[in-house]
Design goal:
Helix content: 10-25%
CATH superfamily: Alkaline Phosphatase, subunit A
CATH class: Alpha Beta
Number of strands: 20
Largest sheet: 9 strands, mixed
Number of helices: 11
Mean pLDDT: 90
Number of domains: 1
Strand content: 5-15%
CATH architecture: 3-Layer(aba) Sandwich
CATH topology: Alkaline Phosphatase, subunit A
Low-confidence stretches: 1-26, 493-532
Radius of gyration: 22 Å
Distance between the termini: 30 Å
Shape: globular
């Protein structure tokens, strides 16, 4: 009952179609530079921070509609998800039951989300040791907070996007671990090739398992790591396809903003910028583009930019074919430094603006996350790559993560389940895909859509499932869905009537709160296996 292994459903016909011919029937060899296999000519990947699927979508599409919170009412016929239902809510095998975080509980502590602790929390697929291993180390919060989840009264915009567009309930981290492995898997499907090859808790066997800073970045602190091998930027450059990584604070890495809790945070986080680990795609001293015309193309900035540069290109009608957007630290959704309401502001303002561009008719926006932050999620998928690092692995036993025939030391995965949404005129509407995908699936979509080929060198792009189940290329709906950044709902005049007793108020900044579960527990730490 507690071991939830998701079925892998692979749309073989769709994958073959994309790899073999374009929509107009031409082959990759016939396609010109920048040609695409689908009607998607612009891909925008918004890569946010540290959220598990159940943490944001566990009770989708049912929201509590508590007094004073923005109301969410699902459309008739909304499909269900593999979420928190029945015994998972009332007889959960963890030391605490899952509990709803109110909108006022927007500020939470950061949970423990390391390569080894996430494996131990999953406990061989039993998914029953999250409190012990992933519970926050912050003494100001209870470890049981790791079981908390939000619903459509807090992450309202994301739930509304899911209603209009498409989402997945079977999207996983390519490996276990924190932000940097997740960022590297997005652009390379690979976390290996690191120098130095060993840093405690950060690098093992030449594989990045922690959050060391990139060695090709003047804003980095210690420890620092560089990577060899190729990433998707190298493939895009070789094909002459315009692209860029756009991150808040990149222009001035000392810039700061205050989040809703009143905490000032530096905008730029070096270990969230994966292209800075590779010499071929790095912009070490954060040189700005020489002109707006350079953005997306070869030049002093080497495809690494500030967020303001993205809008300079987009507003000029020269949005790159492939764009990765990283919110400033206070708006990226990362627990403790950010929160779901600051994140919502960034998402809605960005997506509202994108939908009003002339390029929207050929654009797809992917909203994805770099890791789970350790937040509870009940879904488990057996590893497709096993690792037997005696010091760090521990899914089934000390030094054991998976029994796959594919061995990739310190790259065990897929890891925790994460949210994924696709917003596009060509996205399926009010749809939930159950096809198993992972972070490297976004990389694979870029490779397939622009005929880039595979990276090789051990990249997991070759195994990653296809995102095509989220699209419907036979129908296009360019009508924008514009939302209010504060409530996450459409303008009041367009909202459905709330149920009796509910209210649509609460557009003001909520009071600061640090949420804790009411179910305090005493942890039997003396009996737990060792955690490195």
């Amino acid at each position: 009952m507690n071991r939830r292994a998701l079925k892998v459903i692979v749309p073989v016909v769709l994958i073959a179609a994309v790899c073999a011919v374009t929509i107009d029937g031409s082959s990759p060899a016939q396609a010109g530079a920048g040609a695409t296999a689908t009607p998607i000519h612009h891909l925008v990947v918004i890569y946010d921070e540290n959220v598990s699927f159940d943490h944001y979508f566990g009770t989708y599409p049912q929201a509590a509609n508590s007094f004073g919170e923005p109301v969410f009412n699902a459309k008739p016929g909304t499909p269900s998800v593999d979420g928190l239902q029945g015994a998972l809510l009332t007889q959960n095998p963890n030391l605490a039951q899952p509990f709803r975080l109110d909108r006022a509980d927007f500020k939470t502590c950061d949970q423990l989300h390391e390569y080894g602790t996430e494996q131990r929390a999953a406990d061989g697929g039993k998914m029953d040791r999250f409190v012990e291993f992933n519970g926050t180390p912050d003494p100001s919060c209870q470890k049981t907070q790791v079981m908390g989840y939000y619903d459509g009264n807090t992450v309202t915009a994301l739930w509304n996007y899911a209603q209009r567009f498409a989402m997945s309930d079977a999207f996983f981290g390519t490996t276990y671990g924190p932000s940097t492995p997740g960022a590297l898997n997005l652009i390379a499907g690979n976390t290996s090739g690191a120098t130095p090859p060993a840093i405690p808790e950060q690098v093992s066997n030449g594989v990045v398992i922690g959050d060391p800073d990139p060695g090709h970045d003047a804003c980095s602190s210690q420890p620092q790591v560089t990577l060899t091998g190729k990433n998707v930027g190298d493939l895009l450059n070789a094909k002459g396809v315009s692209w860029g990584w756009f991150q808040g604070g990149f222009r001035d890495c000392s810039a700061q903003h205050a989040n809703l809790a009143g905490t000032w945070e530096k905008d730029y986080v070096p270990h969230h910028e994966p292209f800075q680990y590779y010499a071929s795609t790095a912009n070490p001293v954060h040189t700005p583009p020489a002109s707006a015309a350079e953005i997306g193309h070869a030049g002093p900035a080497n495809h690494q930019y500030d967020l303001t540069d993205f809008w300079a290109a987009a507003d000029a009608g020269t949005m790159p074919a492939v764009s990765f957007l990283k919110a400033p630290n206070y708006q990226d959704g990362h627990a403790s430094t950010s929160d779901p309401l600051d994140e919502q502001t960034f998402l809605v303002q960005t997506i509202n603006r994108l939908q009003q561009l002339p390029d929207w008719s050929s654009t797809a926006v992917v909203i994805a996350y770099d890791d789970s932050d350790g937040w509870y999620d009940h879904a488990f998928t057996p590893p497709l790559a096993a690792s037997h690092d005696l010091l760090y692995d521990g899914l089934e036993a000390q030094g054991v993560c998976g029994a796959s025939a594919t061995i990739a030391e310190d790259r065990c995965g897929p890891g925790p389940r994460l949210p994924l949404l696709v917003l596009s005129p060509y996205a399926k509407q009010n749809a939930v895909s159950h096809v198993q995908t992972e972070q490297a699936s976004i990389l694979r979509f870029v490779e397939d859509n622009w005929y880039l080929g595979r990276l090789g060198g051990g990249s997991f792009d070759a195994r990653a499932g296809s995102l095509l189940d989220l699209f419907d290329f036979k129908h296009r709906n360019t009508q924008p869905l514009l939302l209010d950044p504060a409530t996450g709902n459409p303008p009041v005049a367009d909202q459905p009537l709330p149920p009796a007793g509910a209210t649509t108020t609460s557009t003001t900044t909520p009071a600061t709160s640090t949420a804790t579960s009411t179910a305090a527990v005493t942890l039997p730490t003396a009996t737990l296996p060792a955690v490195p």
